[in-house]
Design goal:
Elements lengths: L1 H55 L6 H14 L6 H21 L4 H5 L1 H36 L3 H7 L12 H4 L4 H6 L1
Length: about 190
């Protein structure tokens, strides 16, 4: 009678340890994925002062937008913001930088500037890397969320207070088709 009880207890203990380790591994993967977004965002934030100084002389009418980008960059690099605020700020910076790139069409001298072209290429590369990092983050978070919510690992997750995470999603505004004609006429 004692041997079957010990075997069952051993199997349960092994399952508990494997489930716990799996959850820790998935949480660490999500943390690592978010850190890679942070690294790419930092790279983009490092490019922003160069972008602002390059376009400042040409784009006097977009001074307010440039000021907003500079303020968002300062806030993002302050280090005193939560994960959700970082995601929100990242989306706002993406929209603002995209707006600058569209506005450049109205400034042929700026568009022809070698410095600006190199900066634009660097920003495009960083945006692609950010996009890839966001996809990796969402895959890691989905994996973690599945483990936290699905039976039987949800039992271990609730025992050790593992929580689901929010996916990196675009805003409703970004889901709409871009009206290019309106962008160029403004």
């Amino acid at each position: 009678m004692l041997i079957p009880v010990l075997i069952i207890a051993g199997v349960l203990l092994l399952w508990l340890a494997l489930s716990y380790n799996s959850l820790v591994s998935k949480r660490n993967a999500a943390d690592k994925a978010f850190a890679s977004i942070d690294a790419m965002a930092k790279k983009r934030y490092d490019l922003i002062p160069n972008l602002v100084s390059t376009v400042q002389n040409y784009m006097k009418h977009e001074k307010e937008t440039l000021t907003q980008i500079t303020e968002m960059r300062a806030r993002a690099t302050s280090g005193n913001i939560s994960e959700e605020e970082k995601i929100d700020l990242d989306q706002k910076v993406s929209r603002a930088v995209s707006g600058i790139m569209v506005a450049v069409e109205n400034y042929p001298d700026l568009k022809a500037s070698t410095n600006f072209m190199q900066l634009q290429g660097a920003l495009n590369e960083v945006e692609e890397q950010l996009s890839a990092a966001r996809r990796f983050f969402n895959a890691a978070v989905t994996d973690l969320n599945n483990a936290v919510q699905m039976f039987p690992t949800n039992i271990v997750a609730s025992m050790f207070n593992f929580k689901t995470r929010k996916l990196f999603e675009i805003t409703e505004q970004e889901r709409q088709n871009v009206d290019v004609k309106a962008l160029f006429s403004s």
